[in-house]
Amino acid sequence: ASIEAQGLVFQRGADVSASGTPGLAVSLEPGAGTVLDPGSAVTVRFGASATVPYVIGLDEAAAQAAIEAEGLVYAKDGAGTGNATNQDPAANTVVEPGDTVTVTFAP
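Now predict its structure.
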């Protein structure tokens, strides 16, 4: 059952880095099984996440800026100098902050 359905108050805590858990609840405070009075607050912390931006068609500088603005690491695949033709992972993929996005550019 949800926290509210139990007569408690949901509070979202700061997101935390937790390997393999972007967007998922990773901790509760107080811990599960603790007996609380009605109206007590329960703080839930979630794994930090970032969403991969769509960079296909952008030049290298714009692609790199878009990726880094999301807290991700930019990597170039190959020696192309044209616009981006492929990216891995795909746009809108939810990943952990600091994950790498590899971009391939047209020759």
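The longest helix spans residues 60-69.
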